Amino acid sequence: MLQRKIEALLFVAGEALSLKELARLTGCDETQAASAVQGIDQAYAERGIVLREIAGGYRFATAPQTREVVEAYLLPPKSSLSPAAMETLAIVAYLQPVTKAEIEQLRGVNVDGVIKTVVERRLIAEAGRKDVVGRPILYKTTDEFLEAFGLRSLGDLPPLEEQADGEGLPLTLPLQQPMPSAGAEEAAPADGEPARGDEHESEACPPSPDSRALFR
Questions:
Q1: Which of 1, 71, 90, 193 has its CA 20 to 30 A from that of 216?
Q2: What is the pTM of this model?
Q3: Packing angle, helices 100-107 and 112-120, rounded to 10
Q4: In angstroms, rounded to a whole number, what is the distance separating the alpha carbons of residues 155 and 146?
Q5: Domain stops at, among 14, 45, 67
Q6: pLDDT, tens digit, for every residue of 68-85?
Q7: Pairing of strands 124-129, 137-141
Q8: Domain region containing 169
Q9: pLDDT digit string (tens) for 117-126?
């Protein structure tokens, strides 16, 4: 009966549920919850829906083998993140907490539109303010970022030095495009950057030698 209750909770939950949350909701201890989760995992192992451990909890997801057909149905091209957005996410993921100015210094372009988009998609969020003149906002990745890219924690990111090219930029996440949220808008371009024909973004200072060294 416990396994059925936990299966139902995981089915209706819109986010990953931890063992602590599952135990609290079902009135059992975490050991019992873990045993039930293991049973569910085994029962779904060969199905189109599988149980995944993501962001410190568990949730149902489509099996990796079904990715192509699921994406063909759910993921219109316009909802994909642009290379610029993926590069910005990578910088935040590896260097967080980081300010917009620091991202711009590394990328060499204005990132107002990109930051706006990835914040709206809840892939990054404010993480306080840096204790310098002007107290700029710091950004960090979110649990939604981990879920979108199928990561259990930031520790699952590959080592930084393996991701940089000879010049240190561009830095990109070695991951698949995240699935869009149910209410994701399909306005083009997808990440809020200038439309084609103005795709070079605003001019900004090129990355300094010191900033490039961060990625070597």
A1: 193
A2: 0.50
A3: 120
A4: 11
A5: 67
A6: 888 777 765 545 788 889
A7: antiparallel
A8: 76-213
A9: 999 899 999 9
